[in-house]
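Narrative of activities, Objective 1.

The group set out to show that a structural description can be obtained from nothing but a protein's sequence at a throughput compatible with the screening campaign. Below is one input-output pair from the validation batch, recorded exactly as produced.
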Amino acid sequence: MDVDHEIKLEAECFCKKVQIQCTGKPTWVCNCHCTICQRCNAAPFVCMAAWMDPTKVVVTAGQELIRELKTSDNFTRTFCGACGSALMSTSHIPEYPFKDISVPLFKRDDTGRIKHLDLLLPTSHIFYPNRMVNLVDNLPKWDSYPDVGKPLKVDAKGDVVQDDGQEAKQQAAAAAPADASVVPASPKKRKGDEPKDG
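Output recorded for this entry:
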């Protein structure tokens, strides 16, 4: 029996009326910099955990409060109708279906720490060309989704630099999660920046 599939991760909105249960480890956990996430969450980026099998993410309470918003041809986002919390995104991309949840919504212990945080730490940045701030860390940066998009090479200030992609792939493969430090994004047009949305 695969123990990973037995793990139950629970999330909730701010008012706790919407409850969500996720089965198994997330497929990936990323900091998303797409402009839709920025606007829907009023934040420079959003840390989200995704399951490539959308049936692993189930609303267990408060279904009647959930409001949907189709934010693009490829995505539907949901919000709590009572408190306004951004809850989940569902991908309608046939070859890349997934459901993701904002990591800060996962339940916390008595100290305020997210339960099972070791499973919910980001391992990369996605849609990094749309960033509002440069992030200097050793996490891989992608132009779109992890492993299907183009890995990006960044300099010591967090700006994207152009290369043939080989060095960026090696950088992405060698990276391990670490604390990020925030550096203001350069106001000038940055090399390799081509806006994309999730």
